[in-house]
Design a protein that fits this description.
By secondary structure, the chain is α+β, with helices and mostly antiparallel strands. It is 36% helix and 27% strand.
Length: 214
Amino acid sequence: MVILDSLIQFPTLDSMADDGLVALGGNLLPATLLKAYQRGIFPWYNEGEPILWWCPNPRCVLFPQQLKVSKSMQVIIKKNHFRFTVNKAFAAVINNCKIVNLQKHDGTWISDDITKAYNHLHLLGHAHSAEAWLGNELVGGLYGIQIGKVFFGESMFSKVSNASKFAFIQYVQLLQSKGIQIIDCQMPTNHLKSLGAIMIQRKDFIDLLNKYCT
């Protein structure tokens, strides 16, 4: 593990440990975060701790063309049960992700500093949100970072059944239409696997980033 100083030199692939923790310290400035994501590294730590930077091996990813949409979700989408938008409520999405994490885990890695940093990235055009609405109420969504032809998913939330899944499916299809080649899901969950996410080796993931993060 590397201790970062003000120069923020992230480790290379051959020096990364298998446990996924690759660096400690640094900052959450836009240039630092974008440099990290381009190398397959993301911040994940509890409030009050030093910033911890991770690059898991293996890595959970979704190739847009492999998206799985269940028959039940096809029915929900066809009925226009939810309304889909992009970048209409970024701050609300990340705040809801924070609240849901707090409720589920009695704590969250989405600290005030993380919230501030990603809202800043959104204003700069690097961070994006996808939203699911029921009437005028925001009931689900997700946010992440886009660099080149890669979307790095960060977190999602759902207030009603299927809302986050709806937003995810709609957004993946939109990203695919815009030429996105890979969606980083970071860590596997049954929810993501049901939508088509798979595990690949870290080396293969970073090779894809070198090809598509331009």
